[in-house]
Each structure stands twice: as C-alpha cells, then as structure tokens.
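Prompt: I keep going back and forth on a fold encoding question. Comparing notes only helps if you start from a blank page. Show me how you would write down a chain together with its backbone fold. Please set it down just below, with no commentary around it:
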Amino acid sequence: MIVAGLMLLAVGGAALVRSVFRRSEPGIRLAAFGVVGAAILAIGLLAGAPLAAVAGLGAAALWLWLMPDRGSSPASIWPAAGLGALSALAVVVVPAGYGVGAFGRVEIDSPLGVLSLPAVILMLGTLSYLLEAANVVVRAALERENIAPDAEPGETQTVVGPEGPTVMPKLGPGQVMKGGRLIGPLERAIVFGLTLAAAYPLLAAFIAAKGIVRFPEISRDGDGGDRAEYFLVGSMVSWVQALSAAFLVWWGLRS
C-alpha cells in the first residue's frame, strides 16, 4: 500500500504545487517542488521504503511532463490510466505490511476502522491526487473530445433555448469554467468519502442533485450541445477517478 500511496502523494503534491505557485518566481516554485520531494523521501526513509519514495518522485516527474497544467496534454488521459494501473499493481504485489520502518507497527483509529501506517499513506495519497491532479485529467479529457476546439479566450456564442437566445462563453482547449478548480475537488472528495462509507443512497442522491442543478444551464444549450457534452464528459471523468480512488483504498484495506 505504501508504494501506491507515495506515488499518488508525490503526483498530487507536485500537481498542487504547480497550480498554487503558477505565477510565482521560478526560484520559489522550484523550492516548493523541493519541499514536496524532500517530504516524500523523508516518509519513505522513515517507513523503511526508500524505493517506494524514489518510485513516487519518478511518477511525479513523468506526470508534470506528460500532463501540463496549460496547453495540450501530449499523452491525453493515458498517464492517469497508467498511474492507476501501477497503483493497483503495487497494492496487489507489495505486501500490505511493507513500509513500517522506524515507526514500528502503528495503528490509527478511524471511521473505517483501525488503519496501519501504509493504509494512512495510501489514504492521504489518493486524497492529494483528487485535489488538483484529477482536475488536469478532466481538462485533458475535454480536449480529447474537442469541445468547441476553435474557441478563443473570452469568445462567446449565442445559443437558442426554450427561453430564447442566450449568450454563453465558448469552451476552447485548456479552458475550464470558473469555479471548476474548486467544485471538482469538493465533488470528488464527497464521492470518495460516500463510496468508502458505503453510503450508496446518499451517493446516488448527490449525483442526481448535480444533474438537477445543472439542468437549467444545459437546457439552454444550442444545437452544438457543447455545454451538455462538457457537463457529461467532465462529470463522468471526475466521478470515475473518485470511484477508482475509493476502490483502490478499499482494496488496500481488505489486503
């Protein structure tokens, strides 16, 4: 579990640093990346899993290269699929007790029961990934579907809906709706938590509620269907990542 946890923690931390320090001086941004890298190495060394820390740093470096925060993603959404496959493989192959190191056997009480240190790191890793790295995957998926590919920043389009013509912004490559960077992580955290808690009726109600809230906006969509497609593709990719993360943690806990 600790191998998958450190990979996800490194990727999530690196993506978050890139987003938060995007407009900072290069030196400050590099220092922030250094802090994240040092933290991953420290956790790996203290847990007696240095190779897991190195694997995490390598995964983070590849992620930053293949999944840019701005512009087109050269590998589309495949790095996310590869990271998920590697994390699942690590949970299956690496013994669940690996990674206790200097801490000895640590058990932490939680609503999910008693968690070992590797389980806690896996939980933190999945949550850190769902914050910002998953946002980049959603944007890459929207680019893959070529939603309003010719739109320029600030360009608008007039769509005709049941209430008459409405001016709406076009969605171009690399563009996201305002608030998406905040709504997305909150949405994924809720889906992740409800799935782990086995609160499936609440999960279904939450997903249905989002569709109801977005319905007036989607109903004003034009013949192109850009807004509806944006909602469906973005939501499905976001939910799949949250559900996959929850399943990975559940699988790790079962091991």
